[in-house]
Design goal:
It is built from eleven helices and ten strands. The chain has 334 residues and is α/β, with parallel strands linked by helices. Strand 6, helix 4 and strand 7 form a beta-alpha-beta unit.
Length: 334
């Protein structure tokens, strides 16, 4: 059955221009890194996607290896899209990536032209799409010449398999070189996707300046530090959390005493602002005009709505920003 989207969906969202391009992205984008794989409940994933679209989220971010199992998040998204949302394809920005391990042998990882072109072909089949709106190189490859990787991305755009190119996890210097190469080829880089949150601020050491100068958008992932910047970690590690189960990148050693104290203090400030800690952490990123959109994840519709609530208060006073820096200063020394 085709989903009938909310008629006022675009009134519920803010849209920001991506760098110097003609594209505007929803201030919040939905990442399908977790909770959309073959091990997850299909109906839950479907409901999250419905509610995201009904609330004005237009950008859906995937990668070849998202799952688990790898590839299954793209399959789940493709099923929901074509069974229920196919009438709205032109209202969506769909992205995917390649750069991490996907299949055995020398052609299933990193940044060769062979891998990138083959991976995107597989992704398009899994999602039953003719093209994606954005195709990212997921991480720099230390062994493949940058020229080859950028030439592959340029070729993908010229073949019509992607409308725009993005890069992810590139340093400031790597980004500058890659963007220059793409520009000379006639294919501009639309957007960069780095890890960025209150506890992880490496992008402030040059990358944001490069992106702003080059007219490239920025869409941070892990805005909640894999859940640390939520009220779930105010007292102890929840038994059902990723940290307790040792899943993904969030390890128990990230929950230091210094961070525990900071989480409590940040939560107190968020409450004074009328927000949850998660909402304040998202708003803190969006306060910077160089940030186009923030990638949120959701394991339930309720969690999605909590994140959407961040848009209700994006303003920070000078005193609040100073207070946040004082709270975070001890954590940044770790």
């Amino acid at each position: 059955m085709i989903h009938l989207a909310s008629k006022n969906r675009y009134d519920k969202m803010t849209y920001n221009r991506c760098g110097r391009s003609g594209i505007k992205l929803s201030a919040l984008s939905l990442g399908l890194w977790h909770n959309f794989g073959s091990v997850d409940v299909y109906d839950t994933a479907k409901d999250i996607l419905f509610h995201a679209f009904d609330n004005g989220i237009t950008h859906y971010d995937l990668a070849n290896n998202y799952g688990p199992e790898p590839g299954s998040a793209e399959e789940t998204f493709g099923k929901v899209l074509h069974r229920h949302l196919k009438n709205y394809r032109d209202e969506m920005v769909i992205s995917t990536k390649a750069g991490y391990y996907m299949w055995p042998g020398p052609y299933g990882d990193w940044g060769s032209k062979k891998y990138l072109v083959s991976s995107l072909d597989q992704s398009l089949k899994r999602m039953n799409l003719e093209y994606v709106d954005i195709f990212y190189h997921h991480r720099p490859d230390p062994d493949t010449p940058l020229e080859e990787t950028m030439a592959a991305l340029d070729q993908i755009v010229r073949q019509g398999k992607a409308l725009y190119i993005g890069l992810s996890n590139y340093s400031a210097s790597q980004m500058q070189k890659a963007e220059s190469m793409l520009r000379k080829m006639g294919t501009t880089c639309l957007i960069h996707q780095p890890r960025y949150n209150m506890f992880d601020r490496w992008v402030e050491n040059g990358l944001l300046e490069v992106l702003n100068k080059r007219g490239v958008g920025c869409i941070p992932f892990s805005p909640l530090a894999q859940g640390l910047l939520t009220d779930r970690y105010l007292k102890e590690i929840p038994a059902d959390s990723r940290m307790a189960k040792s899943h993904g990148f969030l390890q128990e050693n990230a929950f230091t005493d210094v961070r525990k104290k900071a989480i409590v203090q940040l939560n107190e400030l968020a409450q004074k602002r009328g927000q949850s800690l998660a909402q304040m952490a998202i708003a803190w990123l969006l306060k910077d005009k160089r940030i186009t959109s923030v990638l949120i994840g959701a394991s339930s519709v309720e969690q999605l709505y909590n994140n959407l609530g961040a848009l209700g208060n994006l303003h920070f006073s000078v005193e609040e920003l100073q207070h946040i820096e004082i709270i975070l200063k001890p954590t940044l020394k770790q």
